[in-house]
């Protein structure tokens, strides 16, 4: 009976930090007690345990694939936002030029250029990160 302890709510939370025990700051973290209980379900052959760990690893891989997809979408949304803002400021600049307001047009043109540069820089940075991730993922 000492083998099985009461389950506490904080023990049922998922911690992805334990999945990488070599990560910084994880030295004192450990899995909840029920992950290390030895249960003899089929004699000395613990294939069920290996299968469980394979399923757990597969679920973790699927989770990271989903996370990567979401991050890529967020990168695209960020770049699209900067491009939209550049276009918006550019349209305002054209309106100011039509109204013969050169001071306003100068400011609005600078804002448009700033957002264009943000879009270019973010696209370049995101592309670099994606290339690095692909190298690590495939390597």
Model description:
- The protein is an all-alpha fold and 139 residues long.
- 64% of the residues lie in helices and 0% in strands.
- The longest helix is centred in the middle third of the chain and has 52 residues.
- The protein is elongated.
- The two termini are 47 Å apart.
- The model has no long low-confidence stretch (mean pLDDT 80).
Proportion of residues in helical segments: 55-70%
Number of helices: 2
Query: pLDDT average, as an integer?
Result: 80
How would the global form be characterised?
A: elongated
* N-to-C CA distance: 47 Å
The parts where pLDDT drops under 50 for at least 5 residues are: none
The helix/strand class is mainly alpha
**CA-based gyration radius:** 27 Å
Main beta-sheet strand count, sense and barrel state: none
What pattern of helices and strands is seen along the backbone? HH
How many β-strand runs? 0
Strand content: under 5%
Brief summary of the model shown:
The protein has 139 residues and is mainly alpha-helical.
Using brief descriptors, characterize the structure shown:
139 residues; 2 helices; mainly alpha
